[in-house]
Write a structure and sequence with these properties.
By secondary structure, this protein is mainly alpha-helical. The chain has 22 helices and four strands. It is about 65% helix and about 5% strand. The relative contact order is 0.21.
Length: about 475
Amino acid sequence: MMRSFVNRFFQLTENRTTVRTEVLAGVTTFLTMAYIIFVQPAVLSGAMLGKTTGMDFGAVTSATCISAALATALMAFYSRYPIAQAPGMGENFFFVLSAVPAAAAAGFANAWQVALGTVFISGVLFLLLSLAGLRELIFNSISPSMKSAIAAGIGLFIAFIGLQNAGLILKDPGTGVRLNAHFGSPDLLVFFFGLLVTAVLQARRVRCSILWGIVGATGLTVGLKLAFADGQAGRLSYFADSMLAQRFQFATGVVSIPPSLSPTLLKMDLGHALSPRMLPFVFVFLFMLVFDAIGTLIGVCEQAGFIKDNKLPRAKQAMLSDAIGTVAGAALGTSTVTSFIESAAGVEQGGRTGLTGIVVAGLFLLALLFSPIIHMIGSYPPITAPALVIVGAMMIQNVAKIDWTDYSETIPAFLTLIGIPLSYSIADGLALGFISYPIIKFFSGKGREIGWLTYVLAAVLVLYFVFVRGRM
């Protein structure tokens, strides 16, 4: 009876999927984004940056898991899309490196609480925009070529993140980035093994290839760690300097007690967050929210084939879920909650309904109890990096849908495509495309092909970058 209800509610048959497929897709999505459970508290507490912010590490961990579970479950039940949500990368660093210092410079002793207030207010504004249907109008005003470019650009972006997480692409002061030629290092051995397993299984159309790749990479990691457990690491510098030696640790247990939420729960300072010094940060968070969410929604839904006739069914429900997630996250004690592009990993594994999201939400709650196991996998990026690269390879196929015969479509699409990975921001990459698109259309004599909202959006973005971002 329960299986029948789940099938009817999530329309599994209509979406050509099964409970087993949805569950495995949910596990895959969760494993590729589980790093946020450990990265988020490390960033917000200041532990990762070597300077304390005053936020409690344990409380942020609980807030991260609970807010991710709430937002993802809401997305699953309300919009029935396989899109997971959690505190976003980029927004968390902006929170710590910009909003908190600005609050402190303004003379507020409770700087992190004021910064949390700016996140909460931006979430409320985001919710109002969603209720008014403005975000849905923006979504529907984007041309098919631009939607495809966004999906492909995000694919390049997450593949780039995967290559960096693996240690294959390194930062370089002269060229920006460079290739790590030490292919015999443990980190790259784990990455290439996971990539090979996933790619071969994917090519052979084996279900759950990404999940099996993660399992295989984890097995090799454990084997390498044991192989060097007798002290050889000290004599082999390439091992001693690797992430495997420095970051990967065997789980010390299976079950742990969840940390208390009380140090951060409802601690946001809304009064000082509305002060003139902090209002620009409210709008920056709002901008990042709107365009990260729209970009991710387009990327994942384009990959899954949900967009029909350039429109997304239940778009308003999906966007409301994003907005409510941010408000709830700030109340719990964490930075901006948004849709995760890693959801594409689950989509690639066959996830097509909200049941995938329910699995992800449940795993986030379970992670509070089984954090040692999750930490063992999620804290060592080369294990999950192959999943991001493979998903990026799948998403780049969307470039074939761009209208390459019309330069008024091609050039803005191309700027979006390269802008997302090169700016290291979905929001900023989208802004490049959204600003250039109506300008090129207008001066090429095709201005009437697009609606008024596209022009307004471009003008707002220009003003935002000149008067808000440009002065921060």
